[in-house]
Design goal:
The complex is a heterodimer of chains A (330) and B (320). In chain A, 42% of the residues lie in helices and 9% in strands. By secondary structure, chain A is an alpha/beta fold. The chains are: A alpha/beta (330), B alpha/beta (320). Chains A and B meet through α5 and α6 of A and α3 and α5 of B.
Amino acid sequence: MTVHQTPDLTTPLGRYRMLRLIRGFEQLALAMVKSGTIVGGTHPYIGQEAVAVGVCAALRPQDRITSTHRGHGHVLAKGADPARLLAELAGRVDGLNRGRGGSMHAADLSLGILGANGIVGAGAPIAVGAAWAAQQAGEDRVVAAFFGDGALNQGVLLESLNLAAMWRLPVVFVCEDNGYATTLPASVAVAGSALGRAAAFGIPAADVDGMDTDAVLAAASEAVDRARAGRGPGFLRCRTYRYEGHHTMERRVKVSYRSAEEIDSWRALDPLPRAAAPLGPALVAGCDEEVAALLAGAERFALASGHPAPAGACDHLYASGLRPRAGAVA
Amino acid sequence: MSMLSYTKALNRALTDALAGDPAVCVFGEDIGAGLAGPTLGLQRRFGADRVVDTPLSEQAFTGMAIGAALSGRRPVIEFQIPSLLFLVFEQLVNQAHKFSLMTGGQGSVPLTCLVPGSGSRDGWAGQHSDHPYSLFAHAGVKTLVPATPTDAYGLLASAILDPDPVVLFAPAAALGVREDVTWELAPVPLGSARVHRAGTDVTVVAVGHLVHDALAVAEELAGEVSVEVFDPRSLYPFDWTALAASLERTGRLVVIDDSNRSCGIGAEVVATAAEEMRLTAPPRRITRPDGAVLPFAPALDRSLQPSRDQLRRAVRAVLK
């Protein structure tokens, strides 16, 4: 097992380091998809890093999150071991989920990461339930629910906003508005607006520059503090962008729904240089080097980890230990 | 001795679970008022924080129960209408059921769904009369269909103790059953069948309320054939060992099952018996028709449900 320390996001350097770690992790994952080491592909988070880092910097270790199909950034920023996440993506036994979940279901319950999720909007009610349980137990625990603009059109998300507001639950709803639900622009998919959704339920909402880590942190801190103080849910609409396709498969099918100019205009707002600027080149160079070494180690760890034995394919299906019947009579 | 009704048995199981474990809580619509029966008086006794009236947001409060379960609670959800399960198939199958495997066993979802009044209730028509237990058994969600008050108590008690999601169907046609209870109510293990009546000629596997029809037919035909009435109680996991033992005795099988015919639990019982067990005659099953939608008019509604007459004919047919 790797030696992994929970990242410190309380300092500008710590947050820059996490931005760099997520960016580097996602680039490494892209290379491993290309080489075939990661099968099934991934949903790259590149470009959106400031949202995960800013929000998780406002959280405490006991807080919980629910994540999305584009979840690596959230999972890393909440403190998961990059080596074990990478091993999970590669389907290995030392992965966070023992190779049973892969990219879309990465979870680390010990860190309050209740899972990435393959169904759009599905994490929101789970976050509401975790917040309800915390409220009932008198714990000062907050839950952040990440989702994209595509989830704004899922009924279960709207139902979840209602329950959270009605019961003043400590949830922060984080909408990562990257402008597209796969290939469908939000401009032709979302009637009204993200902020209007929150307003309809009386939930305080902030419109945030999701390419600016400090702006996300400031808005998230306000919402998290309010939730922790028992004053109910908050909502952040973080304007952001993914530089890569919705899924790595897009590289093969060569779809075109975004102009190069549009992508470049968002790249110009890249969160990493913005977070690096105040630190100075020497500190940044040292940090980049450390992260590169860490990711090289993560790759070695993932590739050295074994493939799960097919005989155990139904292990963990039931917590009770129930073994399902086999698919063929012996 | 006291006469225990089916609904009261569910109520007692919930009461005992709430009293025995502070992690247990109940979510559902109109449960404070106890409209459907099983939750009557619970909110008064245990408070609105543990017996939680929810708005009409089935998907959100089912997802919410999952989040609560992952945070150490043991939620029970009452669904007043069986067809509401179609709304929350996403949450129950895609999320709750898959969680343990997908996380490599990091956690599980101890969630119980209680459906008091499943199947037809005469005149509730197409969207309130489904009996979708086979869907959950197919998906691998633990699925229980108790036929009697003591089994209703025992299986609900076990469901709440179980670390995995469980759906318990309480058939509307069994809710009127009362039972002399002269023993302590106790949990009934999942996956354990019950032979209500021993027999040597034919095994009738009857699901839920149809157990009572099978017992009536067995009694009626006692002069001509010895019928064993086998109540699986738990459809998933299913007590295949007990079924094999029963067929060792009888060698003949009839299944009576209130599912639609194609891919219903009756089909699974017949298929498994044919592959792996002793059969001396081709088996029969009695089900709803393929793809049945129960029509409103009472005579039409009843005409699509498995009947005693069909069972009588099937028992005689496997004897030939």
